[in-house]
Design a protein that fits this description.
Layout: E1 11-14, E2 23-26, H1 29-34, E3 39-40, E4 47-48, H2 61-64
Antiparallel strand pairs: 1-2, 3-4
Amino acid sequence: MIEKSQQKAGREYTCSEPGCEVTAKFTSIDVARKVGGWGVSGDYKKCYCPVHAPLHRRGAAKKAKGANVLQLPPGWEQLKLI
């Protein structure tokens, strides 16, 4: 969760992954993403520490939450573009 009030040192970021207690302070979301390696959700409500961020990047949140990912049965893949 990203703290709403900004102090002189910056906002406090707390990992949104259940059971993770990691917190850090950054001056902006860009610094948290680029320098700190934190993952920030598109709506800026949730953030994830560098350990848990790869699990939530590029649509991988379904795998992180344990949901079944839809996969095509063997032989149904597209072989080439038409």
